[in-house]
């Protein structure tokens, strides 16, 4: 195995570990579709269509993964979703 191949393998493993966490938003009886959509656009950098699709999944399935990444990347976003009144957690 050459040095170049070994380096590539290490990078692939690190990238895979960074994506182990995800923010899941749960359905509730309090927030409107518009509020959820606007919050996902602002906090998670979703496009309007993506935010609308996530809000529909949350409504019909009870939950939806809205963002993936490292815990350090997700923690402030999850806090912002919670501050906006959404039910969310990092898993």
From TrEMBL:
One Pfam short name: ClpS
GO terms classed as biological process: protein catabolic process
Domain of life: Bacteria
Database matches in SUPFAM superfamilies: ClpS-like
InterPro entries registered for this protein in UniProt: ClpS_core (IPR003769), Ribosomal_bL12_C/ClpS-like (IPR014719)
Gene3D superfamilies per record: 3.30.1390.10
Residue ranges constituting the Adaptor protein ClpS core domain according to the UniProt record: 17-83
Protein name: Adaptor protein ClpS core domain-containing protein
């Amino acid at each position: 195995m050459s040095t170049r191949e070994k380096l590539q393998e290490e990078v692939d493993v690190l990238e895979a570990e960074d994506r182990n966490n995800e923010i899941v938003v749960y359905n509730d009886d309090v927030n409107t579709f518009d509020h959820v959509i606007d919050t996902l656009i602002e906090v998670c950098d979703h496009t309007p269509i993506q935010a609308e699709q996530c809000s529909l999944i949350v409504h019909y399935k009870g939950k939806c993964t809205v963002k993936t990444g490292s815990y350090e990347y997700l923690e402030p976003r999850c806090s912002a979703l919670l501050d906006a009144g959404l039910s969310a957690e990092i898993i």
